[in-house]
Automatic annotation (TrEMBL):
It comes from the Bacteria. Keywords: Membrane, Transmembrane, Transmembrane helix. This is Membrane protein. InterPro entries: DUF2269_transmembrane. The chain crosses the membrane at residues 6-30, 77-97, 127-147. Pfam families: DUF2269.
Length: 150
């Protein structure tokens, strides 16, 4: 197996692991109906998030390494567009989402009773379009890297 082939294999595995975790998070978080369930969901999400982070970093490293091994990739529009989309999504996944989740956890820690506080639910609703942006971006990245349309 060539170095490029090895990098590609690792890249694909990282995509499955990282993107799978990314798509699982909103599903997990939307199932919580009580404070106890929400706390548990956030606890599980913390473990899942590690896979998303490791996958994401591995994707960046292997993707740029494939470009270093095959510099012609940096002339391909699909490759450049993939890198740009990846960079543009990072403030969301590394900044906005963790801050919103931390705020939700803080709200849960201060909650009295089992009913989910309205502030918690408000943040959950705010996360829907943000997660949609992340998911649509991931789907576009998958399409760009598999079809290589241009």
């Amino acid at each position: 197996m060539s170095l490029y082939g090895l990098l590609l294999l690792i890249h694909i595995i990282a995509a499955v692991v990282g993107l799978g975790a990314t798509f699982a998070m909103p599903v997990l978080m939307s199932t919580a109906k009580t404070v106890t369930q929400a706390k548990f969901s956030h606890s599980v999400a913390g473990g899942i998030e590690k896979f998303a982070k490791i996958g994401s970093i591995t994707l960046l490293v292997t993707g740029t390494a494939m470009g270093a091994v095959s510099p012609y990739l940096f002339k391909e529009i699909w490759f450049i567009a993939s890198l740009v989309i990846y960079v543009l999504v990072q403030p969301i996944v590394a900044g906005i989402l963790p801050k919103k989740n931390a705020l939700q956890i803080q709200i849960l820690d201060q909650a009295n009773g089992e009913e989910l506080p309205s502030e918690y639910q408000k943040i959950s609703k705010q996360l829907v379009p943000i997660n949609n942006i992340v998911h649509i971006s991931a789907i576009i990245l998958i399409i760009l890297m598999t079809i290589k349309p241009f």
